[in-house]
Design a protein that fits this description.
Helix 5 crosses helix 11, helix 6 crosses helix 7 and helix 12 runs parallel beside helix 14. The chain is an alpha/beta fold and 395 residues long. It contains 14 helices and twelve strands. The structure holds 4'-deoxy-4'-aminopyridoxal-5'-phosphate (PMP).
Length: 395
Amino acid sequence: MIDYENKVNPIARDLKPSGIRKFFDIAVSRKNCISLGVGEPDFVTPEAFRNAGIASIQNGKTQYTANVGLQELRYAISRYMHNFIGVDYNPHDSIMLTVGGSEGLDLAIRSLCRPGDEFLIPDPSFVSYAPLVSLTGATPIPIKTDAEHKFKVTPEELEKVITPKTKGVILPFPNNPTGAVMTKEDLAKIVPIILKHDIFVISDEIYAELQYNNVKFTSIASFPDMYERTVIVSGFSKAFAMTGWRLGYICAPKELLNLMYKIHQYGIMCAPTASQYCALAALETSFQNGFAEVTYMREKYDERRRYLVDRLNAMGLTCFEPEGAFYAFPCVKSTGMDGEQFAYALLDAKNVAVVPGIAFGESGKDFVRISYAYSVEAIKKAMDLIEEFLKELKK
Ligand code: PMP
């Protein structure tokens, strides 16, 4: 018998399974469960995009691409970043295609963190940041965010957790799970702190196209002196409805991109070829039609967002207005339960699944994450059931 427990990498052994998965394994085992839990678009990849992926296979484009990805696609991303965030990335040495934003995050973290370093992560945030930091031997350090400050990173909270060991900070806005955004003015308050302490930024911009209320997206890389210390991780999964194609990209100064390129070259080779053709069509079509598909989906999310947030607040589950991504993050404290108790009780009583906020960090303890990447009918049905559940609790 092999003594796996003591022979394997202890960091991998001690990683906790994702809190989203743990909950969903229970939810999917139940019949007719209405789930508002999944963090991916309910839209199928728009036809013009997916046909290009299919055609590439039929035309025999089934080999590897360059390690960094198709040149035409890197040019298209460069043009897109210029137009969208006003930052110029050289397609030859500063852009690389990855296997989803997920690989981009892993590469960025692995190329920056050394054992003993500290890396700052807003709490609550997406589940993968802290484990990826831990895997490098560095320590993930939470930055507290709260509903009172609309779950933004404030200069005070950021300053509090910086030490001489701090290597960098992840800025994941629009945020999963809170829907919080950081505007240009919000970012302007934290940029001087980042520069003063000479730390790096990993800017997770996977939801950048999904901002509402006419709040324009600003990338921290566009601030003076920030380009050289920022890695942008982004991708096609969310705004272009392409989760299953597994395609993301990184934009970074060439010195950093070269590090990530080496890890990617040995670990991955290249992002999926058909997916790169699909993404190329997504950008080319969007340049031609003014991002019609992305705009259509964003408008649908916005309708659902407004409906969901109004319903939650009307039934007494206080919900600050999320201005990005496709999640609402209501507080459930008024029920006398924390987020985890609430999610289990709701699943038991009404067969509706939402995700306990604690899955995203300690500051999410009294909250649940509700995704609105579902049809209005599904959201309405779930809201009616949650309302019934709350009434029955009061009896
Ligand atoms: N960042 C955030 C904040 C996410 O929510 C996700 C997916 N849920 C990712 C990155 C990774 O996305 P993908 O690998 O599908 O591009």
